[in-house]
Design brief:
This protein has helices spanning 17-28, 47-57, 72-77, 79-99, 137-157, 183-197, 217-230, 247-258, 282-288, 296-313, and strands at residues 8-12, 33-35, 61-64, 104-110, 161-166, 168-170, 201-205, 211-212, 214-216, 237-239, 245-246, 263-267. With 314 residues, it is α/β, with parallel strands linked by helices. The strands form four sheets. Strands 2-1-3-4-5-10 form a six-stranded parallel β-sheet, sandwiched between helices. Strands 6-9 form a two-stranded parallel sheet. It has a two-stranded parallel ribbon with strand order 7-12. The relative contact order is 0.14.
Length: 314
């Protein structure tokens, strides 16, 4: 019998990219009630609004996926907003969960919390060995404070809060805004539009040498739900594929998937961001049996097909 049958689950950000997939999986697993708060009704940065949300629905479990987030450009423009929004949401939601007697809190952290020069692959044990990469440090540190609060509340109040460290996500439904999209979706948007317009080249930031790890959104949602079901430990857990790929290779994969015939121009005047990112995913595999299933090539193709359809129908 499903462990969700009698549970009311509050999913912040549940109408967003990752959240919509998580909410769907919870419903498919038989959750009694999945609550998706809307920003227009409940400002999660406001203590009164958060208290009203919990009083109204009395959730058994909270999965916190809401975030103010963006790519390198957005992080450089809005470090203050990203820090404040994410700090306030995390702090208020964990505190209200404790006060309201929530059985478990699942916090979605970020690979951006890791030090700039973390040894590859990133082990959860390396999390405190340096300062994050400067362009996204404010965001990464704000998310990291959720881990601190979760562990402190576990120590003082015996509150069951877990913390997941997610790599770059991508897939159908991703944010493709020119101002705030992440690297893979930004590349898909540029290459699809360039192919449709018959452009001769696509400009990509940096020199292509940094590496990243990309997790397909459906895999990420499965990892979050598995952790909610099976993991109750105090230590943070990486969610990723454990596979490192260069930005140059990603650009080539996107070019192939979008059937773009022109050239790639690298704008080396723009920042590269963190030099390398690749997670050690051993803990997730051993703690709750998570392994990513969607190969990068397949995921990029699905994402490109979805975005092309968005342009045609939107």
């Amino acid at each position: 019998m499903s462990c969700w049958l009698d549970k009311c689950v509050l999913v912040t950000g549940g109408a967003g990219f990752l959240g919509s997939y998580v909410s769907r999986k919870l419903s498919e697993r038989g959750a009694a009630k999945v609550v998706v708060p809307r920003r227009e009704e409940f400002d999660l940065r406001d203590q009164v609004a958060v208290r009203e949300l919990f009083d109204l629905h009395n959730p058994d479990l909270v999965i916190h996926l809401a975030a103010s987030v963006g790519g390198i450009g957005a992080n450089k423009r809005h470090p203050g907003r990203f820090f404040y929004d994410n700090m306030m949401m995390g702090a208020l939601l964990i505190e209200q969960s404790r006060v309201s007697g929530v059985q478990k809190f699942v916090g979605a952290g970020s690979v951006c919390s890791y030090p700039k020069f973390t040894p590859i692959p990133f082990s959860e044990d390396n999390l405190w060995e340096g300062y994050p990469e400067e362009t996204n440090a404010a965001y990464g540190l704000a998310k990291k404070m959720m881990l601190v609060q979760s562990q402190a509340y576990r120590q003082e109040y015996d509150f069951n809060a877990i913390h997941l460290l997610l790599v770059n996500l991508y897939g159908p439904g991703d944010n493709y805004s020119e101002d705030s999209s992440h690297v893979l979706m930004a590349l898909v948007r540029r290459f699809v539009e360039a192919e449709i317009e018959g452009a001769e080249q696509v400009v990509v930031w940096g020199d292509g040498t940094p590496t990243r790890e990309f997790l397909f959104v459906e895999d990420a949602a499965e990892g979050v739900v598995l952790a909610a079901e099976q993991y109750d430990g105090p230590d943070p857990v990486n969610l990723g594929t454990g596979t490192e790929v260069s930005i140059r290779r990603i650009a080539e994969l996107v070019k192939e998937a979008t059937r773009f015939k022109g050239k790639i121009l690298w704008d080396t005047s723009k920042p590269n961001g963190q030099p390398r990112r690749c997670l050690d995913v051993t803990r997730a595999r051993e703690a709750f049996g998570f392994d990513a299933e969607v190969p990068l090539e397949n995921g990029v193709r699905k994402t490109a097909e979805w975005y092309r359809e968005e342009l045609v129908t939107g």
